[in-house]
Design brief:
Layout (H helix, E strand, L loop, with lengths): L2 E6 L5 H9 L16 E5 L2 E5 L11 H15 L3 E9 L3 H17 L4 E6 L1 H6 L6 H8 L3 E3 L8 H13 L15 H15 L3 H19 L2 H12 L3 H15 L4 H19 L2 H22 L3 H18 L2 H17 L1 H15 L7 H6 L4 H7 L6 H10 L9 H11 L4 E2 L4 E2 H26 L3 H5 L16 H35 L11 H13 L6 H9 L6 H14 L7 H8 L3 H13 L4 H11 L2 H26 L1
Parallel strand pairs: 1-3, 1-4, 4-5, 5-6
Antiparallel strand pairs: 2-3, 7-8
Amino acid sequence: MKRIILVGKPNSGKSLLFNQLTGLRQKVANFPGVTVELKTGRFDQFELVDFPGTYSMSTLSRDEDIAVEKINQALLDDNTALIICNLDATRLESSLVFGMQMLELAQRFNKQMLFALNMIDEVERFSHFIDVKALAQDLGCPVAALSAKTLQGITEFKQQVLQLANSPVSPAAQLTEQPGEHSAELTSELSSALSSGAASDLAAKQQQAATTASHVIKENPLVLSRKLAKKYGIQASIVLKTQNRIDSFLLHNVSGSLAFLFVMFMLFQSIFTFATPLMDGVEEALGALSHTITGFIGPGMLSDFLNDAIFGGLGSFLVFVPQIMVLTLIIGLLEDSGYLARAALICHRPLSYFGLSGRSFIPYLSAHACAIPAIMAARTIESPRKRLITMLTIPLMSCSARLPVYALLISVLIPQQQYLGGLINLQGVAFFSLYLFGILTALLVSFILSRTANHDDMKSDMPFILELPTYRLPHWKPLLLRVMQSAKQFIYRAGPVIFMVSLVIWVLGYFPSDAGGLQNSYLGQIGHFIEPIFTPLGIDWRYGVAILMSFLAREVFVGALGTLFGIDGADENISGLAANIQQDGLAFGAGIGILLFYVVALQCVATVATLKAETGSTKLVIGLVAGYGLLAYLLAFAAASLIG
């Protein structure tokens, strides 16, 4: 299959353009380094490939190394029919630096090329006009003005892409007219001329375009980019006027720090405040469905299985999916608005004290959704030493898999008290405290690891450089699609594991059915065997079984307890899992100990595998799992002993 490649600098709307062309629900974020892997999709009869964003073919980071390597491979591939170079119309000079390099490579490797002048709506918002036809003439390459956000010019752009990708014309003779105007006429003229054998006039036009392109690529890209930006681009002072006014507050030492703490606090507070009605609705719906189905079937083994394993185990996990969606929505708003880059800048100085970089903030915050992409996002950190420390401490960030565990135990241990008209919820404060504890633990571990680095590693550090994107309103459609996709992926990833664990626990806990209940079942015998390990933590064998099972995936803890309490309560136990645990009498200190255990322990097989792949060291990863596991156990023991 013929291929079209999409390249450009980070934070230029490239990923959103890829979404619009392919319809894929790919993550779009408003900070550098979001794309660290190749993304592919189908556009007409072509395969469209979205390459990682890079500022230059002369790389400074591992992320750019990957991008440049893959771009060079695509240029050597005969199946590459067209190169689309995405330009940020609001920051034309920085975009053209990379664009000029790509134009030279397209000429050298005899590839078609098209510039996509994206975010044209942002420029027009400031009443600025870019003469796209003249810009294309100066570049010696087609240019299409569009907005991937508002879809302005997208239809014409798609037509231009297909014309060029299907055209046999040499890139040395690329047509410079505006899409949908003279380019279509000249393409038609080329076909007629070739069929009639009279192509001398068109050949002259091709040669003229080739001469223009040849002149373009001989000039220094930095000098030429500056000239073209001055001639066609909008003045930076106009674009930055509003941005600088906002930044004077958000980046101030005092007001910026307070704003950052407020934003982070409200981020985790909102998980309880906004998600609670949705969670209650899901729980009521599952309860009604369980009552209807089991009532229709009648008493028996099948009814017990559905009530205990399906609705008790898998259903207890589904209740917390709305919180995953709220977390994804809030983080998405921060990403798309441009605030995350400011947060990274604010965090650079304090993070540097712990041996990290401002760029570590982005993987850290991403890890609150999932540790796996966060570990991969750490590739954007230029310093090898800081990159490794960031990756090793990312598992201490409380990912979405911990969220059901936190929500369950907090609802058991902390009363639902609200303040300031419901804006602040005591359970939300506890939730924020757990996330803060994970962050502080990560910083402490980072501090220790950074002090063990040798001087050669410290000399290899790169300076912290970060581009601050323009403040923008989020594009709601891809943001909402991202929220739905996060819920879908969470269910698809964790659901099968929880179902299998719930099934195993139910079978082991249900049989032998004449043995006298859960205590004397196969599961009870196994649980009592391992109970001495967990007795010092103030919990019995049921919690021990759930903790061991959750080493496959943390969220299994909720499903396992749901199944265990379902079996133990039999048919008359119809209240929610949190209420069942409260009735069972879980001690406050033991509950806090379990929470601290889940904050620190590394209980995700997929995360361990990703760390092994990224670090290349099995010994290091095994040591990390053992170290975090021991620390988690000691914290749980201390909580159970001191709090009681």
